[in-house]
Description:
globular; Glutaredoxin; 4 strands; alpha+beta
Amino acid sequence: MLLTLVINDNCKSCVRAEKDLQDLAVQYPSILLRIVNINSFYEKKVAITPALFLNEELFSYGDIDKSKLIAIITD
């Protein structure tokens, strides 16, 4: 499963989300994690960071609901 996290500079929520996702990527080897700065993310329009995409589909903005994400990963 491809997880793409779109972040911005000086964003505390982005730092938290990145750490959470890196931890999950260690626990779940099926995760391919890609971190992209909003200034170089041209695939989709994003106005709010952090933004998390699962297999190219928007999953969430802001802090990540880890329990919901884990449920999707393990389904």
